[in-house]
């Protein structure tokens, strides 16, 4: 990480896009998921601390059907001048889209399980309440926002093998176990829709797994994409794997052989075609169905994110579940 000048905030996501001091929000609105991350928001008293700082707090009630995007838009109509989320990446993406559309700042409280977006922003994932300091002593970053069709994503959208993981009901409670159970069978039998990926002049026919990310991941080896060095490059990252058997997949990924593996960074749209009208996908770890063909694009510096002026950074780099598991299941 590098220092952002005198403010002392260490942000991995910033390059040629210096953090700027914030002026404070008069009517911040925060959506809190009390179940996310095993109850992190409750353990750290996020709602109570946010109210003490003048924020209006909406607690998600999981016994009801609630459209969080609609709730966020209503808050904007009623005068909110900042939107925030204490929850996982999927919830972050829903509200981030509203914030971007409304040209309002966005506050990320890493109260989910993995919190990849918060990690790449340099936030403290061990103490999610620390992110609330941005309301009183923060800086503003402008970061990119990805779109898959009409849906925004802050991290990535995935198809094929990884999407099969996310679609499985057991995935949320046991990510690794579900990966080990599903991936070998999926790859061996080529289960799922036939995919074709097109971007610019490049076409990838029949990949078994596709990951399109909001900015490219740093990749030390193909089996383990980790952090993103920037969130403001204006580029989509594309990872695609094609193999005949799980053993072949693992061997190629471990050896770094390019055959069967495609990796690129592109400013162009990435279009995923399939032989079905609606394609199962994992959107920031949430199971969704997207009308085909799925056009993925990036909106450069569309999102204004407020972060604390001071931060100690994040822990070890995470990896999108499923990709590393491809190399572990044989």
- Biggest pleated-sheet summary: 11 strands, mixed
Number of helices: 9
Distance between the termini: 35 Å
Order of helices and strands: EEHHEHEHEHEEEHHEEEEHEEEEEH
Shape: globular
Rg over alpha carbons: 19 Å
Oligomer: single chain
Mean pLDDT: 80
Strand content: 25-35%
Question: Secondary structure elements and their pairing?
Answer:
Layout (H helix, E strand, L loop, with lengths): L19 E2 L6 E5 L3 H8 L2 H7 L3 E4 L8 H10 L4 E6 L1 H13 L3 E6 L5 H5 L17 E11 L2 E3 L2 E5 H7 L7 H15 L5 E5 L2 E4 L3 E6 L21 E6 L4 H10 L5 E6 L3 E5 L3 E6 L2 E6 L2 E15 L14 H4 L4
Parallel strand pairs: 2-3, 2-4, 4-5, 5-17
Antiparallel strand pairs: 1-6, 6-7, 6-17, 8-11, 8-15, 9-10, 9-14, 11-12, 12-13, 14-17, 15-16
Helix pairs in contact: 3-4, 6-7
